[in-house]
Design a protein that fits this description.
Radius of gyration: 23 Å
Distance between the termini: 40 Å
CATH superfamily of the largest domain: Glycosidases
CATH topology of the largest domain: TIM Barrel
CATH architecture of the largest domain: Alpha-Beta Barrel
Number of helices: 8
């Protein structure tokens, strides 16, 4: 980084050109609002622009329901790596429950924009709430688990999903190990077919934090089990 001191007659276009940065970067970094007035002697922060070879890829995604406004989706897709389609549930027999509204149009829009659609799996019950009994069933019953993983793979292939996000919440403490093993097994199988698996984690502040939202979530085991983890820090906004 460097500092540029504004001289008489300077404007943002000339300064940006002389420092080999974009006008957008200059005005954003220094919070200069239109009409971009400058004061002589004003110190401006100049970022170090990296070449495209030096820049690290930024992974960006967003959850979206199939009832999302199509204009909102189209305006957001250019900025996303993946689109997490929310959500698919499942029964105690391991059958997938698709969203109540068709998600085909979202998948089409995402693929057209070069964005990977991701199938989000949640243990939502008929009432639309997270059901920890469903979690217990799938993590302890190997036949149900096998059927669910098979149905996931089949649906992902048929609907052209590019990956899987496992978003289980309110996992009981007794299901802690079983849940981690379920994620590990699912990841191993999905990886064989080229699918990456993300697991969403409740935002814990300690490994032994009490509470139904936290006790069944083992950061270490789940971090090893999945390809990627997501810390749901937005939970702090409403719990």
């Amino acid at each position: 980084m460097s500092i540029y001191v504004v001289q008489l007659g300077d404007n943002v276009d000339d300064i940006a050109a002389s420092q080999n940065i974009s006008v957008e970067a200059l005005t954003y970094d220094n919070q200069i609002a239109p009409p971009y007035r400058l004061a002589v002697g004003q110190a401006l922060y100049i970022r170090e622009e990296l070449s495209s070879d030096d820049k690290k890829p930024l992974y960006v995604f967003g959850y979206a329901y199939p009832f999302i406004n199509s204009d909102n989706l189209d305006e957001t897709l250019p900025f996303l790596t993946d689109l997490y389609v929310f959500s698919y549930g499942f029964t105690e027999q391991g059958e997938l429950v698709p969203p109540p509204i068709s998600d085909e149009w979202m998948i089409d829009r995402a693929l057209e924009a070069g964005v990977r659609p991701i199938l989000t799996l949640t243990p939502l019950g008929p009432d639309g709430r997270f059901n920890n009994n469903l979690v217990s069933t799938v993590v302890h019953d190997q036949q149900v688990q096998q059927r669910l993983i098979f149905n996931l793979g089949l649906t992902m292939q048929q609907k052209r999903f590019g990956g899987l996000d496992i978003d289980f919440e309110y996992i009981m403490a007794g299901d802690r190990l079983g849940y981690a093993n379920f994620v590990k097994r699912t990841t191993q199988i999905m990886n064989q077919f080229g699918y990456q698996v993300t697991v969403a984690l409740a935002p814990k502040t300690s490994s032994d934090q009490p509470g139904l939202l936290y006790e069944g979530v083992d950061y270490g085991l789940l971090g090893e089990a999945a390809n990627r983890v997501l810390l749901m820090t937005y939970e702090w906004g409403y719990t």
